[in-house]
Amino acid sequence: MSDGARPRAAVVGAVNTDLVVRCATLPRPGETVLGSDLERLAGGKGANQAAALARLGVDTSLVACVGADEWGDAALAALASHGVDTSGVRRGTRATGTALITVDAAGENVIVVSRGANAELDLARAAVEAFDVVLAQLEVAPEVVRALAQRTNSLVLNVAPACAVDPATLRRCAVVIANELEAERLDLRALAHCVVTHGSRGATHYAWGDVVATATPPAVDVVDTVGAGDVFCAAYASRYLTRDEPAAALRFAVTAGALATRAIGAQGALPTYEEVRQWLAPAS
Question: How many helices (H) and strands (E) does the chain have?
Answer without folding.
Answer: 8, 13
